[in-house]
Amino acid sequence: MSKVLIIAEHLEGKLNPSTARAVSAAVAVQPEAVDVLVLADRVDAIAADAARIAGVSRVLTVARAENAHPLAAVLAPQIAKAAAGYSHVFLPSTTFGKDVAPRVAALLGVAQVSDVMSVEGSHTFTRPIYAGNAIVTVEADPAHAVVATVRTASWPAAASGEHAAPVEPLGLDVALPSHTRFVELKQGKSDRPDLQSAGKVVSGGRGVGSKENFEIIYRLADKIGAAVGASRAAVDAGYVPNELQVGQTGKIIAPELYIAIGISGAIQHLTGIKDAGTIVAINKDAEAPIFEVADIGLVGDLFKLIPELEQALG
């Protein structure tokens, strides 16, 4: 029988929702057990959150000072060691997972499976290629462990509740490299919902016109309690920071509501929102590609339409 080890993603003592989405993918494999591995300097709060995720058999913890920050070079040897006896090792297909998974796969001597969208069998998966224009079915060698990243936009988060899996410390005798060290983490601070896990997202594109004009996007987002995103064109133009970019080279998201304002709809951007529930597009160009995928489209000047929309919202 198969056993899946999920590597928990966390930051500043909080478990990232991507971990619960990876659990959903793991459960689809129909394994004998789904274990979550927490590597941190302080593991208790993170492990407690992981233990409440439905479908988790147990939570394994490795508390070391070296694990205070998610350095791939430091985490990978520990994960490879902990993976002994597991048929699958899953990580979310986030910046964290994309950084760590290739090193783990290399240490285990296997080819990584990236962006798992669905599980067709214990070792058969689908994943996107060509910027999401095609879906390919891949089959991993059952003789070796599967190291895979899970496309979080394609999976719902497993429920969290009264369930409490046992938490067990794991002793790993592994030498850690010293050539990589943590310097600092620079990230945007915001009271708005996290872009990658938000249920509602308002995004602006080149059509917004300037960094100052982007305030209209922030205002609408705050009005409806949404996260803020942007197209690559808006990021490249300096309207917003890089961490807000949505698309093939940005964040892949699946909100229930996605409002695209002043975004033409290049294929690279559409790749990042293909799993969204309802897509609303506002653009003055009636021929913009975004209208081909939008559920609701408004053609007109965004600087007139958005204030009217805000007024209607009350």
Question: How would you portray this structure in words?
Answer:
This is Electron transfer flavoprotein subunit alpha. Keywords: Electron transport, FAD, Flavoprotein, Transport. Residues 4-174 form the Electron transfer flavoprotein alpha/beta-subunit N-terminal domain. FAD binds at residues 206, 231-232, 245-249, 262-269, 283. This protein has 314 residues and is an alpha/beta fold. It folds into 2 domains: 3-169, 3-Layer(aba) Sandwich (Rossmann fold); 200-313, Rossmann fold (3-Layer(aba) Sandwich), CATH 3.40.50. It is 25% helix and 25% strand. The protein has 9 helices and 17 strands. Helix 7 links the parallel strand 15 (257-261) and strand 16. The mean pLDDT is 93.
Provide a compact summary of the structure:
This protein has 314 residues and is of the alpha/beta class.
Notable traits:
single chain, 314 residues, alpha/beta, Rossmann fold, seven-stranded parallel β-sheet, five-stranded parallel β-sheet, 17 strands, 25% helix, globular
**Are there runs of 5+ residues with pLDDT below 50, and where?**
none
The tally of structural domains comes to: 2
User: Kindly, what is the distance between the CA atoms of the first and last residues, rounded to a whole number of angstroms?
Assistant: 56 Å
Query: What are the secondary-structure elements, in order, as H or E?
Result: EEEHEHEHEHEEEEEEEHEHEHEHEH
Q: For the record, what CATH class of the largest domain applies? A: Alpha Beta
The secondary structure category is alpha/beta
Look at the structure and give the mean pLDDT: 93
CATH-defined architecture of the largest domain: 3-Layer(aba) Sandwich
Radius of gyration: 21 Å
